Amino acid sequence: MISRLKERLIRYWRISDQVAREKAVGTIEAELEELENIFAVLVLGSYIGLPSPPMHIALDLMPMMERELGLMLEKVDTANEPIARLFSTLDID
Amino acid sequence: MDLIPSIFFMGKGGVGKSTSAALSAVQLTRQGKRVLLVSMDPAHNQSDIFQTRLGEHPKAVAEGLTVIEIDLASWVRRYLKSVQQQIRQTYTYLTAFNLEGYFDVMKYAPGLEEHALVLAYRHLRKTWSKRMDCLVCDMPPTALSLRFFSLPQLSLIWIDQLKTLREKIIAKRELITKIRLGRAEIERDKVLGRINEQASDYRHLKACFEDPQQTHIHMVLNPDLLSSAESLRIRESLKSAGISLKRIICNKAAPGTVNPSLEKGLDDIPLVSLPLADRPLIGLPALTEYLDADQRSVARRLDGCGIDG
Lengths: 93, 309
What we know:
By secondary structure, chain A is an all-alpha fold. Chain A is 76% helix and 0% strand. The termini of chain A are far apart. In chain A, 19% of the residues are buried. Chain B has an eight-stranded mixed sheet. In chain B, helix 3 crosses helix 5, helix 5 crosses helix 6 and helix 6 runs antiparallel to helix 7. The longest helix of chain B has 40 residues.
């Protein structure tokens, strides 16, 4: 019985640890996504009408920025609901 | 670092940059130097001066003198093609984006011409530094030439900012993996790697342009107000990029004029006066005859072209 209790405690601890870690990174991940989006906008912003670095800098980096390009396109979908997105990030119901 | 000097001939359109560059190149070869004369001007007057068809393949037109013409459009095409190929190799689901159509328009994008010029110049230095004693560059019109010289400085401003932001992103990523996995997993970021490569390339080029041993800018002007005024603006623009003028060549000076007076702001730079020729300077014999005319002592004035001191 004690060993079963011990197992449950360990499992509970592992799950709690996992949940806590996910919560901790959730906000940082949102921040990271915004930073990556800003980076993509800075480098590739000419594609959406924003001032951008000299063309050759953007072109040189473009082959390595598939993820950022995808992120920029994703942001277009949520651009109309910035408050909803912020509330979701901060876990506000 | 290769230390082959480059002599750039700049100036207002029609002042005689191409002719001055050709004369200087011929005079350098008569002093025993091996010279690569590079036509970077899209107008490509060197083929008219030497009366021979020129292109991207180097052509020997005299003992010690090789001439090459840079095809800017071709360099832009090759650059865009290499970027497209890299994208095809590295992109997965975004290849459906149809980037080909986009790249067809990109060749007209502002900024690519001067980048193509920089690529061509770097390639020439790398290829010819061991086979030649100097490069003589007949530069394009003022606007493109100035963008060429200021490109490293402008690029570094952007690159430094992008690098700072990218390092923040990487630090956040490391923090996330550290929290998730209990340890930081450092994955090499290709974007940062490329940014660092760009920074290194442009710092090297900037240092080369600012080094008076490697970069000699000869400003060609005529003895008239418009030409002098533009030369003054060119000097100021180059100064803001940390580049100084080596020599002023006053072309088409009136016969008997030794030192035409220059605008304040240009009078502190060593001056060479080239008198107006009595016949068109077309063909090697005409160039040689012009240099050898005793009464003009042009050859003596162009001696060294400043590259030995």
